[in-house]
Structures are given as C-alpha cells and as structure tokens.
Amino acid sequence: MAASTSAFRITRKNALMGSTVAPFLDVTVLIWNGGLYAAPFVIRSGVSFIASAGLVRRRRVSRILEATSRRRGQTGHSMTTAPTSTTYLKAAAFGFAAASIWAGWSAMTRLAVTTNLDALDVAALRFGVAGILLAPVVVQRGLARDRLGWLGLIVMIVGVGAPYVLVAAGGLRFAPASDQGALNPGCMPLFVALIAAITLGERILIAGRIGLTLILAGALVIMGWHAIDRGIAWNASRTFGDALFLCAALMTAGFTVVMRWTRLDPLHAAALVATGSLVIYLPIYLAVAGTRLAAVPLDDLTVQAIFQGVFVTIVSIVLYGRAIVILGASGGAAFGALVPALSALFAIPLLDEWPSETDWLGIILISAGVYLASGGPLPGKKQPPSI
User: How confident is the prediction for the chain on average, in pLDDT?
Assistant: First the structure.
C-alpha cells in the first residue's frame, strides 16, 4: 500500500509539472465530434478515479505508474524528437484535417437533422456503418473486459457511442452548429477537471486554470447572451439545445478518464464503441423507426453514411494519430482549439448560419481556453518531456 501511495504522489507531482504520458493515440478517441481536449493534468488524475470505480485494480495502476517512472528515469528525455520543418508541416496537415472532420460533424449533422433525418437516423447510420467495418477488430481483439470491466465498457459506449450521438445530434435540432462546436467539445475539459476536483481534490496548473476560466467565460457569453437578446420561442429552443450540448460534453468527459487510463488502443476502443452501439442500438432503432431510411433520398443517405460512419469514426483517428506521433500529445491536442471556430465557419456555407459578434467572442474565449487546458505549446516556453 505504501508503494501505491508513493506512486500516486509521484504522479500528481508530474501532473502539476504539466507532463503527459502518451505520445500515441490515447487521447484521440474523443473523435466522435471533436471532444479530444483532455488536459494532461486531468488525464493523469484519472488513475485514481478509475481505480476507485473498480475499472482497474489499484495494484495494476501502481505497476503502470512505476513503469512510467522507470522509463522516464532510464531515458531522461522525451521519446518524441523535435520534428523537422517538413515533418512538422505534415503533422500540421494531419492535425488540421482531423480537426476539420470533427468541426464538420456539427454542420453536417445540423444539416441532417433539419432536413431529411433526425437524431435517431444519424446514430443508426453512424454506428451501422462503423460497427460493420470495425467488427473484425473486436473479433480479433475481444471485449477487453480484463482492462475495462463491464462498467468501463458501458461508460465508453454511453460516453461516445449511440447515447452520446442521440444527445448531441438532438441538440443540433434546436441550436446552431456554432453552439455545438463551442459548447460540446469546448467545455469537455472543464467537466473533466470538475470530475478530478470532486473525486481527488486535484490541483491545476496556472495555465490550466486560466484555460478553464476562459472556457467557462466563453460558455456563459454564448448561453447568457441568447437568454437576454433573442425572442422567447427561439430563446427556449436554443437554450435547450445548448443544454444538450453540455450534457454531451459531460458524457465525453467520463469517457476521457476511462479511456486514457485503461490504456486501450484507440482503434480497439473505437471498434468496441461502434460494434457495441450497433448490437444494442440498431435493433431498438429498427423496432421504432422500421424502414424509414428507405424513404430518404439516396444521395443524402450516402453522404451522411460515409461521413458519419467512415470519416468521423475511423479516418479522423488515423489522421490525428499521425499528428500525435510526430508532435507528441500536447502538441497534437492543441489542434482541438481549432474546432469551435471551424464549426462556425463550416456552418456558414452549408447552413447559412452566421454567428453574431457575441457568438464569435464566446468562440474565441473557448478556443483559447481549450488550447491552454490541452497543454498546447506556448511561445518561448520549453515543453516538459513526455514519454
């Protein structure tokens, strides 16, 4: 027990220094619409949360942390070397493409639920396609119950699977895409920090505090301004949609903690969520909606199926993963700060939704907060080594 306590103390010290553990894809599976912003100080704190929830035995957690400490001591430096200018541009292209897909989810889904489809249809298309494509991964690698347990598997599926899509897409029926892009992925780091503070009393770096404060300020600007400036009917509708976006962010926050500290391969996690949603949700959908999708125009159906089931759920993992491998976790996660602004920009040509000046203020505040809370590199500041 003493060894375990020591390991957790070491982890908290490292977390307060702003270090990160994963140079790979561990924080990338928040791909379902851009919720990838897991601040390093909060991600580390998830170890105790998961252990106390019974998802990972405390003994196993201690071994992970002790192995991490040994590797840091043996290497003495980051395993991620500084990229060349060419390599950096390539990584930037990967990160920007992934962020564009996540941002595009808001506009594309808003287009779907305000025309020929609804949230039930979007979830069915997304996980019907992705579940079939990723089923071989689950067959090959199994359910990972030894690492997740049933509770962990449920949290993953609820956090970014069909329930999550139903909530987020449902919100897009009532509120614009720019609100979704800012409030859902943008507020997720705030909820992760709250989970850590409540369960662990976790301290946060100054940069992280500033980032979370900016996120909160941006959310209040977006939601508060609508409450006093819009008509009553639109007001209630949009406020309800914004509330659903915040619920979706909270769901993703729970997934973030579970995913990072079970150290599950992101593609495996995506496969578990997609196939789990396929098996659980699709029969319910067919019983409720029947053959409703057959009445949707084929071109609309094809575009949404490919975008939802392939690009958002699979392609973005690969793109963002490449950026993480080259730039490291904090450098790659910083691309998430682009999602709120890109969501608003994509909504202009696709939906003819023009954010107001106040909306842009909230988006800028949230984007800046996401960048800081995600551990994005700061000019003139040497980044701590990561392994």
Answer: 76
Instruction: Enter the pTM of the model.
Output: 0.75
Cβ-contact 123, 166 below 8 angstroms: yes
Identify the pLDDT of residue 303.
Answer: 94
pLDDT confidence of residue 366: 93
Closest by CA to 144, choosing from 133, 152, 132, 134, is 152
Q: Tokens at residue 147, please?
A: 């690492």
What pLDDT is stored for residue 304 in this prediction?
Answer: 94
What are the tokens at 267?
Answer: 């593609």
Closest CA to 138 of 269, 237, 293, 322: 269
Residue 47, judged by CB atoms within 10 A of its CB (0-12, 13-18, 19+), counts as buried
CA distance 342 to 339: 5
How far apart are alpha carbons 36 and 256 in whole angstroms? 8
Please state, in angstroms and as integers, the Cα–Cα distance from residue 288 to each residue in 216, 293, 296, 300, following that order: 38, 12, 16, 21
What does the H/E/C string look like for the chain? Answer: CHHHHHHHHHHHHHHHCCCCCCCCCCCCCCCCCCCCCCCHHHHHHHHHHHHHCCCCCHHHHHHHHHHHHHHHHHHCCCCCCCCCHHHHHHHHHHHHHHHHHHHHHHHHHHHHHCCCCCHHHHHHHHHHHHHHHHHHHHHHHCCCHHHHHHHHHHHHHHHHCHHHHHHHHHHHCCCCHHHHHHHHHHHHHHHHHHHHHHHHCCCCCHHHHHHHHHHHHHHHHHHHHHHHHCCHHHHHHHHHHHHHHHHHHHHHHHHHHHHHHHCCCHHHHHHHHHHHHHHHHHHHHHHHHCCHHHHCCHHHHHHHHHHHHHHHHHHHHHHHHHHHHHHCHHHHHHHHHHHHHHHHHHHHHHHCCCCCHHHHHHHHHHHHHHHHHCCCCCCCCCCCCCC
* Sequence-distant (≥ 6) Cβ neighbours of residue 291 within 8 angstroms: none
Q: Are 214 and 368 in contact (CB under 8 A)?
A: yes
Q: For the chain (length 387 residues), average pLDDT per consecutive 10?
A: 37 35 33 38 37 44 45 41 72 88 94 93 94 94 88 90 95 94 90 76 80 92 74 71 94 79 81 94 93 90 94 86 71 79 94 91 93 74 50
Write down the residue that tokens 């347990």 correspond to: 149
